[in-house]
Specification:
Elements lengths: L5 H23 L5 H6 L6 H12 L2 H4 L1 H8 L6 H23 L5 H8 L2 H35 L3 H16 L3 H31 L4 H11 L13 E3 L6 E3 H4 L9 H12 L1 H8 L4 H17 L1 H4 L1 H11 L13 H9 L4 H37 L5 H22 L9 H9 L3 H13 L5 H21 L5 H22 L29 H25 L8 H19 L20 H21 L1
Antiparallel strand pairs: 1-2
Helix pairs in contact: 1-9, 1-10, 1-19, 3-10, 3-14, 3-15, 3-19, 5-17, 6-13, 6-15, 6-27, 7-8, 8-9, 8-18, 8-19, 8-20, 8-21, 8-23, 9-19, 9-20, 10-11, 10-17, 10-19, 11-17, 13-22, 13-24, 14-19, 15-27, 19-20, 22-23, 22-24, 23-24, 24-25, 24-26, 25-26
Protein name: Sodium/solute symporter
Subcellular location: Membrane
Membrane topology: Multi-pass membrane protein
Length: 616
């Protein structure tokens, strides 16, 4: 057991304190309505939105998983964090205003209002499966892995402990309890993560953190490459095999291409993330909170990647015996050996805080989708508000238990963070297509959206078999192009109604006011926006594959990307179909943002330009 004395006391006090705080929040303001339980009464201030976004996002897969990838791959894995800062700004400016305008509870609910109930139901099932079998289970596994190393207990005990800890405030208090405990936990998370990074970087720099960082850059320069080449490789710690770094993080795809699909789906369409913004007091308050979260994302690689690189340096350059059987054990090893007494307990508390808040967020969102999109729609449409809250609590409990049962099955995985990204990528291109075209393509039909959603997984699996060496980020870009083409073509051949053909009572609420066409965002601007999405994913990937051929990937893949990109761009600009009656009316004023938000966006872009200009 590596936690002793004062560390055990600090850790124990923290755990008990957070549980009591969560229970107090849950009981202070009773969750009598669905809005109370699932959206915290839409009352969150900006700092709670931003803090909860980060606490929900940063969990074991980042602190443990990204440090594991940092140990084997290097700083390039930080692109997931750095590019997320830009994505957050885009989501806040272009996607969030549409969601808040429609006053939705869940992402599937939006899909029904834009398309139909079938699309909503299919996506509800997809998301519940993803949350329970991928997200909750992996976070529980990684958290239990750290507990196993630091406390010397069996993995199942760690899983049970995390389940009980998360359940205390996620099941009974709803989103309000989750968010307010998140605010506490994000402070501990940032402080504890910084302490761990400070400890090992001080060792590398012989007492000076900044010297430690410069030493790492000088001694292991390969681990500070931000954009890999096809020839770059790494050694799998678990198996000793030499594998392709480029296949996991394919060069410029981290700036243009599939990375945009990963981040936009995660931050813009992922229920357990976007739910925090939906619960804000107002749109400006939500946007301010998201900008705050974007700034925090820029700092996270300091403790989520650099410690893993430092562990690699100590092992390969200093001859330190590193007791690591797999990459994801790097951070627990650092915590056990390079964080001093007292701080070790605080940092371990931060790790559990991150795990607990993420699990709570996922559980709350899974229960929200089940209750709002399945129970209310099919099982008991007339259920009372209190009954909905009760069902949400039951669904949350079941989600936790199933995720706990699945967690031990991940014991054979290497870099679990990469596993999460790849398997989420089986559905994210199709889902993102349906959302983006649902918002900004006025001619899209429900049948086209349903086909795109259903084909996403089979197409991903088919191309994984057909072109096995194609990096999964590139495969996501390919599926996005195919999905975009299908969305336009199938909308052209499926029946649709104009608003003149639909009875007033059957029109969606946002269409009933009949905003004059001249007052809406022009069709040409909408087409330009869709074209830009195709260019930064498909065209950029085609150019990169031409300049950086991937070993094992056939040459015709370049022509496939280029051809599909041209086809989709042509379809976007030549499409002359009539609007679907459920097309969303978008007024220019909806996308106007305040000066503070605009300044924050510019500063974030400048910081990222400096980082990539210096390291890439």
């Amino acid at each position: 057991m590596q936690l002793q004395g004062i560390d055990q006391i600090i850790f124990g006090v923290y755990i008990v304190g957070v549980i009591l705080f969560g229970v107090w929040i849950a009981n202070r303001e009773k969750t009598a309505t669905a809005s109370d339980y699932f959206l915290a009464s839409r009352s969150l201030p900006w700092w709670a939105v931003g803090g909860s976004l980060i606490a929900s996002n940063i969990s074991a897969e980042q602190i443990i998983g990204m440090n594991g990838s940092g140990f084997e791959l290097g700083l390039a894995i930080a692109t997931y964090e750095l590019m997320a800062a830009i994505t957050l700004i885009i989501v806040a400016k272009f996607l969030l205003p549409v969601f808040i305008k429609k006053e939705i509870y869940t992402m599937p609910q939006f899909l029904e209002e834009r398309y139909d109930g079938t699309v909503r139901t299919i996506m509800s099932v997809f998301w519940i499966i993803l949350f329970v079998f991928v997200n909750i289970s992996t976070v529980l596994y990684l958290g239990a892995l750290a507990i196993e190393q630091l406390l010397g207990v069996e993995m199942w005990i760690g899983i049970v402990g995390l389940v009980l800890y998360s359940a205390c405030f996620s099941i009974f208090g709803g989103l309000k309890a989750v968010v307010w405990t998140d605010v506490v936990q994000v402070v501990v998370l940032m402080l504890g993560g910084t302490v761990a990074a400070w400890g090992i970087l001080s060792v590398v720099g012989e007492g000076n953190v900044f010297t430690g960082i410069s030493t790492l850059v000088a001694e292991v320069p390969g681990h500070f490459e931000m954009l890999f080449d096809p020839a770059d490789s790494y050694t799998d710690t678990a198996t000793g095999e030499t594998k392709s770094s480029f296949n996991l993080l394919p060069g410029f795809a981290l700036l243009f291409g599939g990375m945009w699909i990963v981040n936009t789906y995660y931050w813009g369409n992922n229920q357990y993330i976007i739910q925090r913004a939906l619960a804000a007091k107002s749109l400006p308050e939500a946007q301010k909170g998201i900008a705050f979260a974007a700034f925090m994302k820029l700092f996270i690689p300091f403790f989520a990647v650099l410690p893993g690189i430092a562990a690699y340096y100590l092992m390969t350059k200093k001859g330190v015996t590193v007791d690591i059987a797999k990459a994801d054990q790097a951070f627990p090893w650092i915590l056990g050996n390079y964080v001093g007494p007292g701080f070790k307990g605080l940092t371990f508390a931060a790790l559990v805080a991150a795990i607990g808040s993420s699990i709570s967020s996922m559980v709350n969102s899974a229960s929200t989708i089940f209750t709002i999109d399945i129970y209310n729609k099919f099982i008991n449409p007339g259920g009372s508000e209190r009954r909905q809250v009760a069902v949400g609590q039951i669904a949350a409990t079941v989600s936790l238990l199933v995720g706990a049962a699945m967690a031990p099955l991940l014991a054979g995985a290497g870099q679990v963070f990469q596993v999460i990204q790849e398997y989420t990528g089986f559905i994210s291109p199709g889902v993102l297509t349906v959302f983006i075209f649902g918002m900004f393509y006025r001619r899209g039909t429900a049948k086209a959206a349903l086909a795109v959603v259903l084909l996403s997984v089979p197409l991903s699996l088919a191309f994984k078999v057909l072109i096995p060496d194609l990096p999964f980020l590139d495969r996501m870009a390919l599926i996005f192009l195919i999905s975009s083409a299908l969305m336009i073509l199938l909308s052209a051949v499926t029946s649709k109604k104009s608003r003149a053909q639909v009875a007033p009572q059957d029109l969606p609420s946002y269409a009933s006011s009949s905003v004059p066409v001249g007052k809406l965002v022009s069709d040409f601007k909408l087409r330009n926006g869709l074209a830009m999405a195709v260019i930064v994913t498909g065209v950029a990937t085609a150019i990169r594959l031409l300049l950086q051929p991937v070993p094992g990937v056939p040459a015709w893949t370049v022509y496939l990307f280029a051809g599909l990109s041209v086809v989709v761009l042509g379809l976007i600009y030549t499409d002359k179909q009539e609007d679907d009656y459920k097309a969303i009316d978008l007024e220019p004023s909806l996308f106007r943002t305040r000066m503070g938000f605009n300044i924050a966006a510019i500063v974030i872009l400048l910081i990222l330009a400096v980082i990539y200009g210096f390291l890439a």
